[in-house]
Design brief:
Structural class: alpha+beta
CATH class of the largest domain: Alpha Beta
Shape: globular
Radius of gyration: 24 Å
Family: In the N-terminal section; belongs to the long-chain O-acyltransferase family.
CATH topology of the largest domain: Chloramphenicol Acetyltransferase
Membrane topology: Single-pass membrane protein
Strand order of the largest sheet: 5-6-7-2-14-13-8
GO molecular function: diacylglycerol O-acyltransferase activity; long-chain-alcohol O-fatty-acyltransferase activity
Pathway: Lipid metabolism; Glycerolipid metabolism; triacylglycerol biosynthesis
Number of strands: 16
Catalytic activity: an acyl-CoA + a 1,2-diacyl-sn-glycerol = a triacyl-sn-glycerol + CoA; a long chain fatty alcohol + a fatty acyl-CoA = a long-chain alcohol wax ester + CoA
Number of domains: 2
Length: 522
């Protein structure tokens, strides 16, 4: 097992922000080397206070008290002192992670961020564990479950990091990074977390995140004169129609349109229940095999196998409830099930994960915070003879959603309601839309190479959240050649989350087998 000294040697270099450059120039002029956390905190406290953004205020409403959880499995024991020594170079440089949430009673109860001195001992939690316990995997799962029963103390910045040095089936040590959702959306917080890591092969380099390549097909069409005009008119009309229908369905959902009450749909008040986090790590190569064979994206494959897994699970649950044959070939599903996912879409103009070094500086163009729009994505729940049909249906649905401005308009509608009617009405609108759907889904792209969290090589990364009105949340997270499926469930609604996760995994295997059976993949 690697020693603490070995991990220290691989600690990441400080982020090269403007502030870091000034510090480096000061050292060249005879100043002290290194970063003094006390001076760093004093500098931060001199910065002006910042009001909360409208979306950040929304996440402090009682029915929207969301927390993001990132489970990090490491291939070595996690050394707390190494983590504490490196945090000032990254996390503490970001304003949100060194600020208190303060309610200004003299100014109508408005909320604002106020810089404070960070006591890392209050943020780094290291429980005393028995390394020889019988079921370490179950202990970690129960630990996170119990963590979801609590909220972060508002007397300190709204984040904490739990370090569990316990060997499990997938890791030698586990870190649980918990952040209040008001600090940022999933993409922003993933950017921050990845900025705390470095490539194992190159300790000075930040992780590499794949960026989607733009196709040249549209350019060829636009260079054909008459066909350019015809295609352009059709493209605009289709975009307008899709957006109109999607926004209309969004408003109808806010008013009265609700999903079918299935065994996956949580009852009112589900957001206050603790969550069970279940995850499995699969081969990303299997998903790429399907992607290449059917000319898809990884997101298409993820949605398709999720749709197949949910169909398998619901078919068994309906069979069990009615004492019918719950076998895979027996169709126990009711007809015309309406089951939709709330898909969170990043509406930033810049694609991919943004560097923390850019987001830390106020004068950059990068947007930090909750800049997300909602897309209501319908799932077809049915039993198919051909497993590939699930993938084809998912692709058709997501392709149509891509040719729509639904995410931008839903973000704008929520912001407009907040400005016109206040935070209470905006919270009620968002809560009503989300609670009228069944689940939440996300797919995040991770690093292409092995990375280390402050020198600790990472085995997997499993992000999720709790506090949402849904009883089910499904996240896909890629990392090197792996894909981790993460489920956050309310056990009062879904008592067998491991079985649901197995159904999604089995669905991926069935789709892969069907692709291989078709013949050689190009």
């Amino acid at each position: 097992m690697e020693t603490e000294e070995g991990v220290r040697l691989r600690k990441p270099a400080p982020i090269k922000t403007k502030r870091a450059k000034e510090e480096e120039e000061g050292r060249r002029d005879g100043g002290e080397a290194g970063v003094d956390i006390r001076n760093c905190n004093k500098e931060m406290m001199n910065v002006e206070e910042e009001p909360l953004s409208p979306a950040a205020r929304l996440f402090h409403e009682p029915n929207f008290n969301l927390h993001i959880v990132a489970i990090m499995g490491c291939n070595t024991r996690i050394y707390p002192e190494v983590v504490k020594a490196n945090l000032p170079h990254t996390l503490l440089r970001h304003p949100r992670f060194s600020s208190l949430l303060v309610v200004d009673e003299k100014n109508g109860g408005k909320m604002k961020w106020v810089r404070t001195e960070v006591d890392l001992d209050k943020h780094i939690i290291i429980p005393d564990l028995d390394p020889n316990m019988e079921s370490p995997d179950q202990f970690v799962e129960d630990y996170i479950y119990n963590l979801s029963k609590t909220t972060i103390d508002k007397s300190k910045p709204l984040w904490d990091l739990h370090l569990l040095n316990l060997k499990t089936s997938e890791a030698e040590g586990t870190g649980i990074f918990r952040v209040h959702h008001s600090l940022g959306d999933g993409t922003s917080l993933m950017s921050l977390l990845l900025a705390c890591t470095r490539q194992i092969s190159n300790p000075e380099a930040l992780p590499t995140i794949p960026v989607k390549k733009k196709k040249d097909d549209d350019k060829k069409v636009f260079n054909r004169g008459f066909w350019w005009c015809l295609f352009g008119v059709w493209w605009v009309l289709k975009l307008f129609w899709n957006t109109f229908v999607d926004v209309f369905m969004f408003m109808l959902t806010a008013l009265c349109l609700e999903d079918t009450k299935t065994p996956l749909k949580g009852p009112p008040g589900s957001e206050f229940n603790p969550r069970r986090f279940v995850y499995q790590t699969l081969s990303l190569d299997d998903m790429k095999l399907i992607k290449n064979a059917m000319n898809l994206t990884i997101n298409d494959v993820a949605l398709g196998v999720t749709q197949a897994g949910l169909s398998r699970y619901l078919n068994r649950r309906y069979g069990d409830d009615e004492n019918k044959d719950s076998g895979e070939k027996k169709n126990n599903l009711p007809e015309k099930i309406r089951l939709r996912s709330t898909l969170l879409i990043n509406i930033r103009p810049a694609a991919g994960i943004q560097a923390l070094a850019d987001m830390m500086e106020k004068n950059t163009e990068a947007k930090w915070g909750n800049w997300i729009g909602y897309v209501l994505l319908p799932f077809t729940i049915a039993l198919r003879d051909d497993p590939l049909d699930y993938i084809r249906e998912a692709k058709t649905t997501i392709d149509r959603k891509k040719h729509s401005l639904e995410a931008i308009y839903t973000f704008s509608i929520a912001e407009l309601v907040l400005k016109l009617f206040g935070i209470k009405r905006a919270s009620a609108l968002s809560h009503r839309v989300i609670s009228h759907t069944t689940m939440c889904f996300s797919n995040l792209v991770g690093p292409l190479e092995e990375i280390g969290f402050y020198g600790h090589p990472m085995a997997f990364l499993a992000p999720s959240s709790y506090g949402q009105p849904h009883a089910l949340m499904i996240n896909f997270q890629s990392y090197i050649n792996k894909m981790t499926i993460v489920l956050s469930v309310d056990e009062e609604t879904i008592p067998d989350p491991h079985l649901l996760c197995d159904d999604i995994v089995q669905s991926l295997n069935l789709v892969k087998e069907a692709v291989v059976a078709r013949g050689p993949v190009k």
